[in-house]
Amino acid sequence: MKGINKILESIGRGVGKVVGAMYQAGRESIDQVITNVLPFMAFISLIIGIILATGIGDWIANTLSPLAASLLGLIVLSVIIAIPVLSPLLGPGAVIAQIIGTLLGTQFATGAIPARFALPALFAINPQVGCDFIPVGLALGEAEPETVEIGVPAVLFSRFVTGPISVVLAWLASIGMYQ
Amino acid sequence: MDALARAAEWFIGLFIQGGQTFTGLVTGIIPLLIVLMTFVNALITLIGPDKINAMGKTAAKEGILYYPIRYMIFPFLAVFFLTNPMAYTMGRFLPEKYKPAFYDSAVSMVHPPLGVFPHVNPGEYFVWAGIANGVTEAGYNIGDLAVRYLLVGFVVILLRGIVTERISFIMWRREDKDEAAA
Q1: Is pLDDT of B181 > 80?
Q2: Residue-level pLDDT at B132
Q3: What is the pLDDT of residue B182?
Q4: Which of A45, A111, A136 has the CB atom closest to B25's CB atom?
Q5: Which residue of A12, A127, A173, B27 is surrounded by the most CB atoms within 10 Å?
Q6: Which residues, in sequence order, are CB contacts of A44 under 8 Å at separation 6+?
Q7: Same structural domain for residues A93 and A165?
Q8: Does B159 sit within 8 Å of A94, measured CB to CB?
């Protein structure tokens, strides 16, 4: 009898732990969606709506899409975004990357930019990732002030090199996709 | 009067289009996002995020063999379990000289997994979803794109780790020389 009780108890405890974790996870997910995802969706929808309804979309399709629809154009985009002075300004909240991504998305949707450029484009819009956050990020890793002094320029210069390379890598990796 | 009515119609038209886009995003993305995030968040709680602390020691070792651990696997696991921005706290397990490169590597991993693991950074979901949505609307399946984004992400963070490590080593050496001269 005692053995059975013990088994029942451990089953109950295990189930309780799993259910509790799942319930908590669900609450976290809903919180994140409401506080982070939905507001951004509202903002993005407004931008897309205005672009589509006013004809700015056609203008983008005619002027910017040809640039984004070539490897060279995407490399140029990544180099501009990775300029060490610009990249920290473009970083915060990845807002700029998300807007450019969405703008390009409208062009992928109409086929103005062929889908095979999607992967290099994902890297071309993002060489500035985290460039605004280097001192804070290093401080979170308990870095000394001297490390931050070196770390900030080191990361910024590195991006100027690795940004365009990442676009080329992505372009190579997308060979054979969406042909 | 007629012109006014037409202007009003045009004005509302801007937002009708936006509203339709919003409906599409909410019904198309949110349900999957919520369920997937719930699953992964529960998994992380059950596994216990502190398990990756032990890996910090391995990642701190010298030698070329440990580069892929320090700048590929460790940053990915940090981002996967701790998400943005707590992932960067894992830098504390590394010696000072590796910290800038580790940060570069980890912060470059906060977007490539979004197609498969959106829980790592839901607040910046549209870095991925902006383009992915367009590709979906063009009639393509984005599974392939999501997986390749993640895989190329691994290669890119390794590259960033190595390049940033080199650059910071050079800068430290130069600084030491300046100090010796002064």
Answers
A1: no
A2: 92
A3: 66
A4: A45
A5: A127
A6: A98, A99, A102, B21, B25, B126, B130
A7: yes
A8: no
ipTM above 0.85, yes or no: no
Tell me, yes or no, whether A19 and A95 share the same domain.
Answer: no
User: What residues contact A5, with CB distance under 8 A and at least 6 apart?
Assistant: none
The owner of tokens 């799993």 is A18
Nearest to B85 among A121, A137, A151 (CB): A137
Residue of A nearest to B173 (CA): A150
Mean of per-residue pLDDT scores for chain B: 88
CA distance A1 to chain B (A): 30
Q: Cβ of A29 and B86 within 8 Å?
A: no
pTM score of the predicted model: 0.84
Residue A120: domain span: 55-179
CB A115 within 8 A of CB A65: no
Here the tokens at position A118 are 């999607």
The pair of structure tokens assigned to A98 is: 């998300």
A64 and A46 in a single domain? The answer is no
**Cβ distance of A138 and B103 shorter than 8 Å:** yes
pLDDT in tens, A63-111: 777 778 889 999 988 888 888 888 888 777 777 888 888 888 888 988 8
Residues A24, A67, single domain; the answer is no
Give A60 or A33, the one with higher predicted confidence: A33
**Average of per-residue pLDDT across A117-123:** 92
* pLDDT band at residue B105 using 50, 70 and 90 as cut-offs: very high
What distance in Å separates the CA atoms of residue B97 and residue B116, rounded to the nearest whole number? 32
What one-character DSSP code corresponds to residue A37? Answer: I
Residues A165 and A82 grouped into a single domain: yes
B93: left (phi over 0), alpha (psi -120 to 50) or beta: alpha
Quick one: which of A19, A146, A89, A125 has its CA closest to B134? Answer: A125
Q: How far, in Å, CA of B43 to CA of B134, rounded?
A: 31
Is A134 found in the same domain as A76? yes
Q: Considering its fold, how many domains does chain A have in total? A: 2
Q: Is the pLDDT of residue A62 over 80?
A: no
- DSSP annotation of B111 reads S
